[in-house]
Amino acid sequence: FPGVVYNYDQEGVHRAPSGWEQCISIPLLQPGMLELLQHWDNLLEEFSQGEAWLPHRYDEQEHNCYTFALAFINHVLGTQGQQPLSKGDFTERFVIPHTRRASRYLTLHQELSHRDFYIVPLPEGQPNS
């Protein structure tokens, strides 16, 4: 899924079209909500320019990239009249399930690659059964 990754560090907000190929993508929108996705893109661009995300405000423990992501999600929830998520809620509901799944996949891939198995992609159009 091509796009731009926004991230925040001691140098401020960055927009990167590449370099994040090894990251875990956590979907927050249901498939088929393309119109909302475009709205989110506009909100993210506006949000990332806020004073809260200036480089001098960065703090490795308290005001970091995780804070940036959660603050943006809560900003969107606020525009939709929904309650904000705490760090704990967000971690429990979104981050942990995806990191567990990635960990299982990586463990399986590592085991298979070290046991004389050859992993090949399925031909186009073939079901994953």
From TrEMBL:
Family annotation (InterPro entries): MKRN2OS-like, MKRN2OS-like_C
Residue span(s) of domain MKRN2 opposite strand protein-like C-terminal: 3-112
Name assigned to this protein: MKROS protein
Source organism: Smithornis capensis
